[in-house]
Design a protein that fits this description.
By secondary structure, the protein is an alpha/beta fold. Helix content is 47%, strand content 21%. The chain is built from 9 helices and 16 strands. The strands form 4 sheets. Strands 1-2-3-5-4 form a 5-stranded mixed beta barrel. The protein has a 5-stranded parallel beta sheet with strand order 9-8-10-11-12, with helices on both faces. Strand 8 (165-170), helix 4 (175-185) and strand 9 form a beta-alpha-beta unit. The longest helix is centred in the C-terminal third of the chain and has 138 residues, at 283-420. It is elongated. The model has no long low-confidence stretch (mean pLDDT 85). It is an enzyme of class 3 (hydrolase). One of its GO terms (molecular function) is exodeoxyribonuclease VII activity. Residues 151-464 form the Exonuclease VII large subunit C-terminal domain. It is found in: Cytoplasm.
Length: 479
Amino acid sequence: MTDTSFIKLSALTGKIQQALHSVFAEQTYWVVADVTNHSFYQQKGYHYFDLVEKEEHAGGIVAKVSAVAWGNGAVRIKEFEIVTGQPFKNDIHVLIRVSVSYHQVHGLQITLLDIDTAFTVGLLEQQKQQTLLRLTTECADFIRKAGDRYITRNNQLPLHAVIQRLAIITSGNSAGYQDFRHTLEHNHFGYTFIIDNYFTVVQGETKAELVQQRLIDVYNSQVPYDAVVIIRGGGAQTDFLIFDTFILGRAVAKFPIPVITGIGHQKNETITDMMAHTATKTPTKAAEWIIAHNRNFEEAVISMQQNILIRSQQLLSNHFQQLSLLNNTVINQSRTLLANHKEDLHACKNVVLHTASSILLNRHRELIAVSNGVLQRPRITVSNRLNDLSNIVANFRSFSRMYMQTKRGQLTHYDALIKLMSPAAILKRGFAIIYRDGHIITNAKSLQPGSHIKVVLPDASLEATITEKNITHEPGTDI
């Protein structure tokens, strides 16, 4: 053994480095692949990811290699995200330019140099979208899309208020299953669970029928499970392809018992998650969700119990206080009413007595006054009428004398006025009466020169003829 020739590892890796360098030095290649297991370190701006190629029809992985992008490659990824609006993430199908190198410590290294913005959706995501479209098309009676959410028969099932009996579909050697059991069995609230295990393989697209069969076994068991939990541990993105298959999505969507998933992925949502009643990120999260669900029911019951106790105490206290108050009120008001009515009766009695005496006294006085009035009224009336007659007679006599005197004075005045206004008295004052044709002339309008007139004076009458007529505006008769 000691005679066998050997070389150091560094020499071997050096030869590999030289061989690869001689082939790939200064060479770049445009490669089509899917991105998985992507991680980004923002402080340094480094991207670490796997490139995956899958079989065209079977969907199995043909090739897988680790890759990195930094410097100009990271800048090109940033430009790719800005131009396409598509984050550089898992499950996108990309066309990238890479270089190949080998490091004696870090091994084979694929470095991203550029990325074609025309490739925005990865083949894995395309297959997923095609599967979802197929589900909504072929299973429209129990799967439909509402916005970004899928409405299935399973996620519309009502959960029991308490989840206690569980059917677990998982791998028997899964660390996630152990975490799930540990979380349930060591919960802080002392809840107990009945768990039935349905172990199977939960990795690889070709194993989806095995998981479907375990669901069929759960259904055929006729056990009244509160929920079915599908769990597995973490892994690479390609490890979850089994949960993006059509047959498993359809089986979960129409399953008559609520399905809870805790598949162990942190970044992406599988088709099984979308079809299930409740999806959680990890097996531990699934267990915590079940515990929280039961805790919500317990808290609701405790809260209801406390509310009933508090409300009962409040009602009893309020009614006791009301009864005590009512009792005191009845007693006090009864005493008050009796005392008030007694005083009212006594007051009414006094009022009746005093009022009756006063009324009788007033009526007696009124009768006496009426009696006196009846006796004295005739004499007073006769006396008043005699006085009135005496006054009338005296007034008549006095008024008769005054009336006769007034009338005599008026007759004397009228006699003097008549004598003063007689024609003889007027003629004596220097006036004359002029006649024409037997008629008294009162103005000269009808008289013209040559007219014959008769002038009557107090002591004679004159016949005259008008020789001249002069019109004057001053009569000259003012006396």
